[in-house]
Amino acid sequence: MSLIKQLWLTIAVLLLLAFVGSLLIGVTSSRHYIEQEVQIKNSDNANALALSMSQIEKDPVILELLLAAQFDTGHYQRIALYDPQGEIIDERTAGEHIDDVPGWFVNLVRFEVPPGRAVVQDGWQQYGTLELASQHSFAYRSLWRSTLELAGWFAIAGAISLVLAAWIVRTIRRPLRDVVSQAQAIGQRRFMVANEPRTRELREVVQAMNQLSQAVRQMLGEESDKLDQLRRRMQHDPVTDTLTRAPFLNQLQAHLKSEKDDASGALIMVRVARLAELNQQLGHADTDALLAQLARRLEQLARSHGHGTVGRLNGSDFGMILPRHHDLQELGKTLQQPLESLSAEQSIDTSLVSALRQYSQGESQAELLASLDGALAAAETRGLNGQEIVDQPAGSVLYTRHDEWRQALAEALAQGVFLAHYPVLDAHGRLIHFEVPSRLRLKGEWRPAGVFLPWVSRLAMAPTLDLAVVSAALADVESSGKAVAVNLSAESLGDGHFVGELLARIQAHQGIADKLWFELPQSVALQQPQALRTLCHALLGLGCKVGLEHVGTQFGKIEGLQDLGLSFMKIEAALSQEVESRSDQQSLLRGMATLAHSLGILTFAEGVENQDAAKVLFELGLDGVTGPGIRHREGDT
């Protein structure tokens, strides 16, 4: 039995005992008082009547008339006159009229009042004995009315007491609920702080829970900071604090293999021309300062265009990846301004040349870098701060105008979405769920998501596509019974209509909600933490699982990570590349897995290319793997 039920039961028992006790004492006291009053009345009336009879002539007719007159004028149950031998001389009796009082009450409080007795004298001799008993009906009525009044007043007092008790119980229950919710949240690796109640004992409990929550939150924050420091030490250039060559190229390779909207975009390279000469003229410290300023300006540009990636490829070359950006002419103008400004600030002539090129899914990384390297060389021949834009081959473009893309996408969505299936397996080869990236039929072929998602985003059609994918995923789960992971875009998360429709469709298929895993980009957690938290709690309440995909080195920077309620995260493919031979990446992945597990979050690795890499990842503590080297056997579930 719960504490609240015990408290209510105690209050009810106390009120019942108080009512029964008060009623019993009140009725008993009133009954005893009435009996005394009736007994005194019987005695006084008997003495008065006996005195009157003693003073008149003892004529039987006169005595009978006097007895009858007394009986008729009073409320008597019985008046009898006995001779000295005990024989009745005269007697008057009447029944009790108590129809307006319940019989059970009369039987319960039956009065036991002895009749009044007095001696009738005839001179100096005893003429007889008079016995008189009053009616009790009025006493029953009086006692019944007082009992009803007592019960009524007690009912009012009881109602007031119950209202007061309900307020007290609610006052006690609220902090208890907060403590229970807080304990459950800590069990789910969410560390909330509850409001402190006024009640001292409850306040002490809540304070202790808040201290525990804060201590665990602080511990996890410290672990996150240590992980971030480890990441920077292993992956960042000490001079410019940007990614070094290997992590940057891993990021680029992950984009080229992606099935998402980051599978195409712009790749930019910037070179500090004649760096060796600058180093001799400016000195080592000033040259390092120049490189650091260049890196900061490139990072500012990357942030202004979304979450781009900046890296230092070698001593003089910097690279920048801007997913989902395709207007190279505009990007070139935006890039040229900070480069020219930085060049003009130097005390000697400094040339910062740049080259831009689009990248798309399936392209060769080596060819991309080679073409940009050649473009940089051409930019240097243009003079100070030269820039070269590499044209994309016309054959790789499906449509050239916005209206063509809009019409083609609308027709493809009307035809229906096809879902590819890529397994996510655990350490024993068992299926956790299928990733189901979408395919649309464009120009007679099923095109991967990396081809059309940039245009879907550009044309604000992401909510429409995501709802179509959700419907297809629901049908897939109903037919196969296998769990699937559905990608949701950041644009859809900010659409209130989409969120409402998504929840409605899941509620309509509540029986399979536990087989639905929803993935959102890591950038959503960085840019829209409140919207993500709201969606997480709504989907988790329906039995679904929610997680982040493409989680990278900024994982520890996510604000309120422990309060989001995430079920899983998928670590980006760049961190799983060549993990077998990279001890630095292994340390980083182990730290990310440990931090995620401390928050109750499952960790999966994306882009795993072979079983050896998968084995190492499982040894590092990851819970699942997916990628081109992962295959699922039908017999495994």
UniProtKB/TrEMBL annotation:
UniProt xrefs under SMART domains: EAL (SM00052), GGDEF (SM00267)
Domain HAMP: 170-221
Gene3D superfamilies, sorted: 3.30.110.200, 3.30.70.270, EAL domain (3.20.20.450), LapD/MoxY periplasmic domain (6.20.270.20)
Signal peptide: none
Source organism superkingdom: Bacteria
Presence of the UniProt keyword Transmembrane in the record: yes
Span of domain GGDEF: 263-392
InterPro entries listed in its UniProt record: Cyclic-di-GMP_PDE-like, EAL_dom, EAL_sf, GGDEF_dom, HAMP_dom, LapD_MoxY_N, LapD_MoxY_peri_C, Nucleotide_cyclase
TM helices/strands, residue ranges: 150-169
Key words, A-Z: Membrane, Transmembrane, Transmembrane helix
SUPFAM superfamilies per record: EAL domain-like, Nucleotide cyclase
Domain EAL residues, every copy: 398-637
The name this protein goes by in its record: EAL domain-containing protein
Provenance organism: Billgrantia ethanolica
Source taxonomy: Bacteria, Pseudomonadati, Pseudomonadota, Gammaproteobacteria, Oceanospirillales
